[in-house]
């Protein structure tokens, strides 16, 4: 197999692995029953006029399975943090005692569980589309190699390898989705 084809295969695998990492991170943000600091990772807080990730203005921890605590580095940030949690519409009701913000995580209802599973499936489908687009782009790159003098047999072999990589990655994504669904639906 030519070096050009090997390079394309490596790029394909690398891009697709990044999609798996992305999906893992996105699924981790969706709560499945117990509190996790990742649930508020996407929140941004107005910090002296600039939108800043919550992790840069406060310490977020989960001391108990159903409680998140957010301790701002500066007391003046309690209001903006509380406001951003409320505006994010995450279904949480933050309580602040002047020093720390506590969020009690309510039990998931059956409807909310179904919504979360649907959200997970949407993330999985978006990720699969990205993987398929990567496959398509790299297959096109392989086909261009025939014009540059690489034999058709080598290109066909490369196309087969790209399909194997794609199938493996899609199987990984399905496995991740299955685990998350099971986690969400477990009572």
Topology (elements, then pairings):
Elements lengths: L2 H27 L14 E4 L2 E4 L4 E7 L2 E6 L5 H10 L6 E3 L4 E4 L5 H38 L4 H34 L2
Antiparallel strand pairs: 1-2, 3-4, 4-6, 5-6
Helix pairs in contact: 1-3, 1-4, 3-4
Envelope shape: elongated
Distance between the terminal alpha carbons, to the nearest Å? 52 Å
Helical content (DSSP H or I, runs of 4+): 55-70%
Q: Using DSSP, what is the number of strands?
A: 6
- What's the CATH H-level superfamily name of the largest domain? Ribosome-recycling factor
Query: Please, what is the average pLDDT?
Result: 87
Number of helices: 4
Task: Write the element-wise H/E pattern from the N-terminal end onward.
Answer: HEEEEHEEHH
Which second-level CATH architecture of the largest domain applies?
Orthogonal Bundle
Q: What ranges have pLDDT less than 50 throughout 5 or more consecutive residues?
A: none
Output the radius of gyration.
22 Å
Per the CATH scheme, the topology name of the largest domain is Topoisomerase I, Chain A, domain 4
Q: Can you identify the CATH class of the largest domain?
A: Mainly Alpha
Q: Work out the strand percent.
A: 5-15%
Strand order of the largest sheet: 3-4-6-5
Largest sheet: 4 strands, antiparallel
Tally the structural domains: 2
């Amino acid at each position: 197999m030519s070096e050009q084809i090997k390079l394309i295969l490596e790029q394909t695998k690398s891009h697709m692995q990044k999609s798996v990492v992305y999906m893992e991170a996105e699924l981790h943000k969706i709560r499945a029953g117990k509190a996790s600091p990742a649930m508020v990772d996407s929140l941004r807080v107005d910090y002296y006029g600039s939108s800043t990730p919550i992790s840069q203005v406060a310490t977020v921890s989960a001391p108990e399975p159903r409680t998140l605590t957010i301790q701002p580095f500066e007391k003046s940030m309690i209001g903006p943090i509380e406001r951003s949690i409320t505006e994010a519409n995450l279904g949480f009701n933050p309580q602040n005692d002047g020093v720390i913000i506590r969020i009690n995580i309510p039990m998931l209802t059956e409807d909310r569980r179904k919504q979360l599973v649907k959200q997970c499936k949407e993330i999985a489908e978006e990720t699969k589309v990205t993987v398929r687009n990567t496959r398509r782009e790299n297959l096109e790159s392989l086909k261009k190699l025939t014009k540059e003098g690489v034999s058709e047999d080598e290109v066909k072999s490369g196309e087969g390898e790209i399909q194997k990589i794609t199938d493996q990655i899609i199987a990984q994504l399905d496995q991740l989705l299955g685990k998350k669904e099971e986690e969400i639906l477990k009572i």
